[in-house]
Specification:
Elements (H helix, E strand, L loop, with lengths): L1 E2 L16 E4 L3 E3 L6 E8 L2 E2 L5 E6 L2 E6 L5 E5 L5 E9 L2 E9 L1
Length: 102
Amino acid sequence: MSFAFSFNDNDNPLADRFKYSFNSTDLVKDHQNSSQYSVQILENGKHIGAGENVSFLVNGVNYTRTTDVNGIATLNINLEPGNYIVYCEYKSCKNYNNIMVL
């Protein structure tokens, strides 16, 4: 699932919120494998690069991960079988995906 917003208002301090988009997909994983959830953050269509903090919330626990050179932040998923929602946030912009652990 990818969300993208377009907005052009240089006088509006909230305008920065709309220049970011997220490249991510739902995750289905076996309980025993080491699959990870990853999200790529784009700024005006280009990856944000390395060293940016992205916040995650899954199963009531907050995590912070740092992006790599391609603007990708990755979260290890070590959950019991079930259905979960993972929320991610970067500079007040938010995204979510579903995680199914079999």
